[in-house]
Write a structure and sequence with these properties.
The protein is α/β, with parallel strands linked by helices and 611 residues long. The protein is built from 21 helices and 10 strands. The chain has a 6-stranded mixed beta sheet with strand order 6-7-8-3-9-10, with helices on both faces. It has a 4-stranded antiparallel beta sheet with strand order 2-1-4-5, covered by helices on one side. A hairpin with a 2-residue loop joins β9 (537-542) and β10 (545-550). 37% of the residues are buried.
Length: 611
């Protein structure tokens, strides 16, 4: 009931159409109930007495009743379609908007494929239940009750047949609905799994072809597809049992009525027309029960879908802007004060444990550490993509929880580890950083990110990047993402391993360009020592804790982990004794150990940036 109450609010804009549809269905049912009664009069009076005038008059009345009922049926179809389509669009829009308000921790609770299913398949099921179920839901009870009343009026003795068959039929229907209701949930879950496999295979289609794994993914897809087919077969195999049950009930009722009715006609206790009309009411009553059972099956599936949609709508965003949040990040000063963090309250261990750090405004900070040491988690807390478990993170002298979220995330620009570009042109993507940016501003950001080097080759700002930026290489994606973030003019700029697909020379040029941003605090997560050795402060993380902090020279003297990283990557090019010259010679060393960036993902597109 709580799920129904949750989604029913989206029907409110269509209350007028809903009421008109209900009125049309109700009146249509009432008119159809009158037709067998008129037909009985034609047979028993008009035909029996040979009064053709009466036959024609009553026949015309039947035609008129049928025509009006048909018009009302068309009216119902129109109004119900407006209600169902409008309701579905409003609910889908509300669900999508609600998902946009989710924090990262909320999104961790839902698979992408499941969210897609809930916004498409589940909403379609709910719409179908409205269009196909609302009319029988109104007509069925009306026709059942009125049909029984009229049948009792025509012959109370024959009506006993109904009161014997109907309870048995109702029990059978209740058992079917009770059995099939939970199966719909299993079927929708299997649909989620199918969408998940399909989405993953299509996104990774190039890797699948590169590793010649088409057969493997085809077998995996066949498995989830068969699982969905099995779930659907079990569900509908149970659901269709209602048809033979109804057919059997209708045939038993018809035989019993003809048997007892025939005896009453032979005894002169009933006219042929009365029995003919009575048999028409048999069809009406049994059809009404068939409609009611189908409605129950539709509602059973719709309730499952409503519950799944309701789960999304009831999910409360874990992170919200304060009511009167700070509207601007003043400086780029960052401080971590005894910060501990875990992604889930049920996790056995903290991802970050008792981290205390201070980054002065305008400084450059490098963050190093092994995979899983908590580097990405550390910088995500700065933009409040997650909230700390304990302690506090301060930006510009204020706890990040005191800021308006938009102001904070405009002030703390994060170039995520996973680069995301959207379908459209280079200009369209860059303007995610600043929707009002001029072409000169866009080009200036591209120069800082060294993206201007390939712009002309791919078609300039009007170049089409394709779906997900598939028309550019990995390094080019990273540079465009950096340019997009620079257009936000942040006070703190975070690079989460954001030049890993660029060659060392390009990486060095990007870092050299960023040194011109004197008033911006730059936090660089990197796997390569050469990317951070010029930083004002280097933080070494180990197993979620701060292992060491200092400059390159200090860490070379005092920290074994940093020295091992340096020696393994830079080798004998610059010994520990020449660490004092590291700042001046960083670019030269970087070029000497140049690597090749990730190749283009589309054949015939931009070549790798190996320079």
């Amino acid at each position: 009931m709580s799920d129904l109450a949750l989604v029913s609010r989206y029907l409110r804009p269509y209350r007028r159409q809903f009421a008109l549809a209900a009125l049309c269905a109700f009146v249509e049912a009432a008119l159809e109930l009158c037709i067998p009664f008129v037909m009985a009069g034609i047979v028993d009076v008009g035909v029996a007495t040979g009064d053709m005038g009466l036959v024609l008059a009553l026949g015309a009345r039947m035609v008129a009743l049928a025509a009006v009922a048909g018009a009302l049926g068309m009216g119902y179809a129109r109004f119900s379609a407006e209600v169902a389509m409008g309701f579905g669009a409003g609910l889908r829009e509300a669900e999508y908007a609600h998902v946009q308000g989710f924090s990262f921790s909320n999104l961790d609770d839902f698979d992408t494929s499941s969210l897609v299913t809930r916004m498409t398949t589940d909403l379609t099921v709910i719409q179908n239940a409205l269009v196909m179920g609302f009319r029988p839901l109104l007509r069925g009870p009306v026709m059942l009750v009125c049909g029984l009343v009229i049948a009792c009026t025509m012959s109370s003795r024959l009506a006993v047949v109904f009161f014997v068959i109907l309870p048995a039929l109702a029990c059978a229907l209740a058992l079917i609905v009770h059995r099939v209701a939970p199966l719909f949930g299993s079927m929708q879950h299997a649909m989620d799994q199918l969408n998940d496999a399909l989405q993953e295979d299509l996104v990774a289609i190039r890797a699948i072809k590169a590793y010649v794994r088409e057969g493997y993914v085809a077998e995996r897809f066949d498995e989830v597809n068969a699982r969905l087919a099995d779930a659907a077969t079990r569900t509908f195999r149970t659901a269709v049992i209602n048809t033979p049950v109804f057919t059997l009930s209708m045939n038993v009722a018809s035989v019993a009525l003809l048997w007892f009715g025939g005896q009453m006609i032979m005894a002169g206790e009933m006219g042929v027309g009365t029995l003919t009309g009575f048999m028409s009411y048999v069809l009406l009553i049994m059809n009404s029960l068939m409609m009611i059972s189908n409605v129950f099956l539709l509602l059973a599936r719709a309730v499952t879908s409503i519950h799944r949609v309701g789960e999304v709508l009831r999910e409360r965003p874990a992170i919200k802007s304060p009511t009167h949040g700070i509207g601007r990040v003043g400086t780029g000063e960052v401080a971590f004060r005894d910060v501990s963090f875990r992604y889930s309250p049920t996790a056995e261990k903290d991802v970050l444990s008792h981290v205390s750090l201070h980054f002065p405004a305008g400084s450059t900070v490098g963050v190093l550490g092994a995979t899983g040491s908590g580097k990405t988690s550390l910088v995500q807390l700065m933009a409040r993509l997650y909230d700390v478990t304990s302690g506090s993170v301060e930006v510009g002298g204020h706890d990040v929880r005191e800021y308006d979220l938009k102001a904070l995330r405009d002030g703390v620009g994060v170039v995520l580890q996973k680069n995301v570009l959207f379908t459209g042109t280079v200009r369209d993507n860059l303007r995610w950083g600043d929707a009002t940016a001029t072409d000169d501003e866009l080009l200036h950001a591209c120069r800082l990110a060294c993206a201007d080097e390939f712009l002309d080759r791919i078609g300039g700002l009007d170049a089409d990047l394709g779906h997900g930026g598939g028309n550019v290489s990995g390094g080019q994606k990273q540079r465009l993402c950096i340019a997009r973030t620079l257009l936000k003019h942040p006070r703190v700029l975070v690079f989460d391993d954001s030049t890993s697909a660029c060659d060392m020379t390009t990486d060095a040029r990007i870092r050299e360009s960023l040194t011109r941003l004197a008033d911006v605090t730059k936090v660089v997560i990197a796997q390569r020592v050469a990317s951070v050795m010029d930083a004002d402060q280097i933080v070494v993380l180990e197993d979620g804790r701060v292992h060491a902090t200092g400059t390159h020279e200090e860490l070379m003297r005092t920290d074994d982990i940093y020295r091992e990283l340096y020696e393994s990557q830079v080798g004998g090019m610059a010994g520990a004794g020449t660490a004092g010259a590291a700042g001046a010679g960083a670019t030269a060393r970087a070029a000497a150990v140049e690597t090749t960036e990730t190749p283009a993902t589309s054949t015939g597109k931009e070549a790798p940036d190996a320079r």
